[in-house]
Write a structure and sequence with these properties.
CATH class: Alpha Beta
Strand order of the largest sheet: 7-6-5-4-3-2-1-8
Strand content: 15-25%
Helix content: 40-55%
Structural class: alpha/beta
CATH topology: TIM Barrel
């Protein structure tokens, strides 16, 4: 069974250590009975240490929001994997904001991903198309391009350590990414189609057993209102949450939904028309 992963990407939204610690502690306390889901948050780099102390000995884990592929050197403004691995279990790579705003390429992301794996961090590789690319019928082409470029040269054993996040750029609430586009989450059909495209590509490149082990999570405006419908889909194994992860009140309901589905998946169930039905 694929693991369920729920991540909270705080981006540059929380700028106070005290506030970060308070929110993280609230989330961690709420996780005490939900150990069947892997949950991480990604605070700003300057808040990681304080938050790590606050959530010690809880189920809540930490992620870096990015990293560089050199361990040390004259790289002003970058963060080393050596610094992250002391505090974090995950690292987010290839997010649409570094890709689209700061020009990160698939090849650069591949180098970062290899270094993360070498250092024992779990990379969360983000992929996704823009509204223009989707409207032009290029969504599958873009996903294949990003997968091929970011995963070039990886071995099967390395692939099993990766989490992939599909984040349709057009569903992300960021005016720099979507200045002229109405923001909306992907419909369940759109999300499941994209996740299926990703898993089929993984199947073709690395084989069915490996493809079936990799968790593919959804990262486009998931919230408590749409989480159940999205997480019920066969190909969606969790979520990378933005705005809804900035408070325990909004984040914990999503995690609870994921935990309930994870528990039920250990029982007898079947998929019918993209709906999870449990046997009596």
């Amino acid at each position: 069974m694929r693991r369920i992963v729920i991540g909270g990407n705080w981006k540059m939204q929380i700028t106070s250590n005290n506030e970060a610690v308070r929110i993280a502690d609230d989330i961690a306390q709420g996780l005490s009975t939900m150990s069947n889901v892997d949950v991480f948050i990604a605070p700003s780099f300057t808040e990681l240490y304080s938050v790590s102390k606050a959530i010690k000995d809880t189920h809540l884990m930490l992620a870096g929001q990015n990293m560089y592929y050199h361990e040390k050197g004259a790289f002003t403004g970058q963060i080393s994997v050596l610094s992250l691995k002391e505090l974090c279990q995950f690292v987010i790579l290839g997010h649409s904001e570094p890709r689209r705003i700061f020009g990160e390429t698939d090849d650069l992301i591949r180098l970062k991903l290899l270094k993360a794996l070498e250092s024992g961090l779990t990379p969360v590789l983000c992929l996704g198309e823009t509204a223009k690319e989707r409207e032009g019928g290029k969504a599958q082409e873009i996903l294949h391009q990003q997968l091929a470029g970011s995963l070039k040269g990886l071995e099967i054993n390395q692939m099993k350590e990766i989490v992939i996040a599909y984040e349709p750029v057009w569903a992300i609430n960021n005016k720099f990414l979507n200045p002229d586009t109405k923001i909306r989450p992907a419909t369940p059909v759109e999300a499941n189609e994209a996740h299926t495209i990703i898993r089929e590509w993984l199947n073709n490149e690395f084989g069915a057993p490996t493809a079936e082990e990799i968790s593919i999570i959804y990262g486009g405006s998931m919230n408590a209102q749409n989480a159940k419908e999205l997480l019920n889909l066969e190909q969606i194994d969790g979520g990378l949450i933005g705005g809804a992860s900035l408070s325990a009140e909004k984040f914990l309901p999503i995690i609870r939904i994921a935990a309930q589905l994870s528990e039920n998946q250990s029982a007898d169930y079947r998929w019918e028309n993209n709906t999870l039905r449990f046997d009596e």
